[in-house]
Amino acid sequence: MVLTISLPDRHTFYAGKPQKSSTSSETFQSVDPSTSKPVCTIHTSSPSSIDSAISAAKSAFPSWSSTPPVERARILQKAVSILRSRNDELAKIETLDTGKPFSETSTVDIVTGADVLEYFANLVASGGLNGESFRLRDSAWVYTSKEPLGVCAGIGAWNYPIQIALWKSAPCLAAGNVMVYKPSEVTPLHAQFLAQVYTEAGVPDGVFNVVYGAGEVGAYLTKHPDIAKVSFTGQVSTGRKVAGSAAGEMKYVTMELGGKSPVIVLPEVDIEQAVDGAMMANFFSTGQVCTNGTRVFVPEKLKAEFERVLLRKMDDVRPGDLMDMNTNFGPLVSEAHYKKVVGYVKHGINVDRATLLRGGLEKPENLPERLNNGYWVRPTVFTDCTDEMKIVKEEIFGPVMTILTYSSLDEAIVRANNTELGLAAGVFGKDINECHRVVKQLQAGITWINTWGESPAEMAVGGWKQSGVGVENGRRGLEAWVRNKSTLVEMGGAVPTVFAKL
Ligand code: NDP
C-alpha cells in the first residue's frame, strides 16, 4: 500500500497558530525515506520569528505557571485522549517522516509519548509538585516549594520525533513552564500536529511553540537570554556545544546523548532469549535507537551456537512496504545517514577486517520496485570483532551488530566499561543473582536484565559519562523542570539581630 498524505507547508507556530507572515524565505523538505521523495516544505524560522515565539511563550508563562497543577493536569489529560484517538493518523505521519514501519509507529511512538504525558499530568495532579516543610525549632519552620523555570527550549533528534517532543513538553508543561520546541530538520512533521493537539485540548496560546530549521536555529535558542533551560536530545558532539553555550548563561540543561552500549551474554543463558534480546538491541527501528546494544559480548564457548541461532532468527527481519503490518524493518532516515552507516559497514569490511556474518553493502532483497531509491540497508552482523575496531568503538546508529567473545566475566565487564559513553547496558543469564552482580558493575544509566529497550514512563532514564546529564521520565524527571525555593519563617516575634542596643 502506498502511503500518500498531502501536507500544507509548515511555518513557525506560536501564539496558538502557524505564523506565515514571519517566516523567512528559506525552506527545506521533509523526505519519505522509503522512496526518497519529498513530502512537505518547511519554512525555516528567521531570528525575528524565533524571538516572536519566545515572546509568545514569555507572555503565556505568568498565567500558565499560576494555574493550579490539577487544572493544568486536566488539560494535559485531554491532550492524552486526543493523541490516543488519533494514534493511527499520527503514526502514518511518523512513518512518512522517519521511514519506520507502521507496525512500529502505531504501537510505540505515539503510545509511549502519550503515556509520558499522562504520567506527568497524574503526577502533578496528585502532589508531585509539593515541597516539604519541617519545624526548625519551636519558633521557626521551613518550607520549600518547586517553582517552574520559565521559557524552556526543547531540541529534538530525528529518531523518535513525537516521542521526544512529548518526553520534553510533558514534564515541562505539567510543571508550569512554557516551551519553544525545535524538531530535527530531518523529521519535523509531528511538531505542528502536536501543537494543534495541545491547542485543541485547551493548552493556552503561547504555552507550546514550534520553530523550524537546522543547527543554527537550535544554537540561537540555546543562547537566547530569555530561555531558562535547554533540554536536548542528540549526538554527543552537538550536546557538548549546546551544554557549553547554555552553561555560559547559567541555564539549566538536560542532555540525552548517544551511546555504544554493551550486551553481556552470561555463560549460563537461554540462548534463544539472548539472541532475541541482541536482535531487539540492534535491529529495532533499523538500529536508530540511542540505547542500541551494539557490542554483544558472548562467552567463547557459546559463540558458534549464538551465531547459529542468530542467523536463523535473522530470517524474521522483514524489510518491505512500510504500511504492511508484517514489515518490521524500515529504511534509514535520510540520505546523509545512509551514507554514514554504509561508510561504517565498508570500514568494518575493508579496514577493521571483521568477519561479515550477515548483511553488508547491498540493499535488502525482494523490495518492491518503487522502494528502490529509498535509504535501505541490510541488517548486518560482524563477528570476530576486537575492542579497538572503529565499528566497535563508535556509535553507528544503524542496524550493525558487533560480536565480541570473552573468556572470563570480569574481563567482559572491564571491556564493556571501556568507553567514554555510558547510556545503556544489559545482561542475559539464567542466574538472576549473577545478572544483578554484573549490572551493578556496568557504567551506564539505563540497564536491563533479560530484556532490552523497554522505557516506561515510570522509569527515569539518562546517560552516564559522555552520554548525558540528568534524566527524563519517572519522578526524578519532573525535578529537572523545577527549581527549589526554601523559605524560613520566624514566629518568635523578634528578629534575631546582632545590632541590639548595648
Ligand atoms: P544531532 O546532534 O545532529 O541533532 C540533534 C538536534 O540538535 C537537532 O534538532 C539539530 O538540528 C540540533 N542542533 C544541531 N546543531 C546544534 C547546535 N549547535 N545548537 C543547538 N542545536 C543544534 O543528533 P541527531 O538528530 O543526528 O540524532 C541522533 C543522535 O541522538 C544519536 O547520537 C543518538 O544516540 C542521540 N539520541 C539520544 C537519545 C537519548 O535519550 N539519550 C534518544 C535519541 C537519540 P538539525 O538536525 O535540524 O540540524
From TrEMBL:
This is aldehyde dehydrogenase (NAD(+)). Its EC number is 1.2.1.3. The keyword NAD applies. The active site is at residue 256. NCBIfam families: PRK13252.1. Residues 24-486 form the Aldehyde dehydrogenase domain. Residues 16-37 are annotated as: Disordered. Residues 19-37 have a biased composition (Polar residues). InterPro entries: Ald_DH/histidinol_DH, Ald_DH_C, Ald_DH_CS_CYS, Ald_DH_CS_GLU, Ald_DH_N, Aldehyde_DH_dom. GO terms for molecular function: aldehyde dehydrogenase (NAD+) activity; metal ion binding. It catalyses: an aldehyde + NAD(+) + H2O = a carboxylate + NADH + 2 H(+). Keywords: Metal-binding, NAD, Oxidoreductase. It is an enzyme of class 1 (oxidoreductase). Pfam families: Aldedh. Belongs to the aldehyde dehydrogenase family.
